[in-house]
Protein: Checkpoint protein
Organism: Aphis craccivora
Amino acid sequence: MKFRGKIIDPNCMKQFYSIVIILSKLCRNVVLRLSSTKLFLIALNESNSNQISVWSVLDQQSFFKDYDMIGETESNEILFSLPIDMLASSLSSAKQTNLKTLKMKLTDKLSPCLTIELDLESQVSSKQLCTHDIPVTVILPKDWSEYKEPTIPAHNISVVMPSIRVVRHIVDKMKRIGPRLMVSLDASGKMVLGVSNLSATVDTHFIGLEIVSVQNSTDKENKYSTIVDIKKFSQFLNCETLNLSKILCHVVEGLLLHCSIEEDEYVLHYFLSGIDD
């Protein structure tokens, strides 16, 4: 079992760091699933370990200058888990302008580690090497089935979300009112975000959104809603740092809010289970 990869493009390093930072807001531990062509970042639902809450896939050729791995079994894959906050902390230099290369490799230092090497330009020497060792837990092939691509249920409706910055600002204000957020979408392209407590109900309406798909497009009044934990939704909205062209919002009536980012180099899916009113 072997893995080593090197990123040299400054934009790729910053983008990789931004993705890790977003995941650090959404989960405590992440599973890295490595294949010859893809790098997967996966998190299980903390309240239900049988469900995946985050599924992110990076195209290794788009990020890595060098990428070498030898995996296990015929599928030639490696799976291991690690604390996402430690990975985010180790990559913090990726946002600096003097970072030349970012290297990652699996090492054995009394226990398995993901070693991060950051090659920085220095004013006092030709280079400065910063190394971090993150302890990892190797996942055996018999447990790999827990981290296979999730089956996404058929959505009742999907739209392009409004400005993520505006939504984040509004949701952050709504968090002060109540812990649960109702997200409603209809076939006319309207999104309603609502929160309430014993003394007040507050709704925010966005209109004219682009419809991606809808179960019954002939009935413009048909509304699909789900209620989610407002703090968890707010944490996802930190993806603003990725400078995205668009984010898709999907609703499965009463059951699921699914947010997805689909770029050429990577995709990221975030699943928020609906909660009872």
